[in-house]
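Supplementary Methods, section 5.1.

A reviewer requested that the exact input to the structure prediction be made available. We therefore reproduce it here, unchanged from the version used in the analyses.
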Amino acid sequence: MNKFSAFFIFYLFLTGCGKYITFEPNELSDGYIGQEYYVPITISGGTGPIVDLNYEIHPSNSGLKLVFSESKYYTKYIYNNFTIQGKPKLQGLVTISIRGGVVASAGKDFEKIYKINVLK
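The structure derived from this sequence is encoded cell-by-cell as follows.
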C-alpha cells in the first residue's frame, strides 16, 4: 500500500468514525403514575465528549427529571451519561427534548426527543 492509500484510509477512518451521535436506549418504556421510573441514558459517538447539553421536559410538573453524574474533570457534570428518573405524577405523554454539542464538532449540534407514555 502506498502512502496516499494509507493516508486516504486513515482520513476516511477519522471522518467516518464517531460522526453520528447515538442515544442508548433509543426509545423509552412506559411509565406509571406514582411508580419509580429510572432509565440510564448513554450518549456516544461524535468527535469528542459532550460539552454543552440543554433539555426541556414537558409538562414541567411531570415528576420526572434528568440527573447527571458529578465530574472530577473539566466540567461540573458528565453529560454523556445521565438518568431519567422520578415518579410520574400525570397521566399522558411526557416529552423530553435534549440538545447539545460535542468537542470539535464545528458547529454540528445534536437533538433527541424522547417520549414517555405515562399510564395509571
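The mean pLDDT is 82. These observations are discussed further in the main text.
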